Amino acid sequence: MIAFHFKSELVIQKKTDYADWINRVVDSEGFSVGQIDYIFCTDDYLLKLNKDYLNHDTFTDIITFDYTEGKIISGDIFISTDRVQDNAKKFDVEFSNELRRVMSHGILHLAGFGDKSKEEKDIMRLKEDEKIKMFHVEP
Question: Which of 1, 71, 45, 52 is nearest to 62 (CA)?
Answer without folding.
Answer: 45
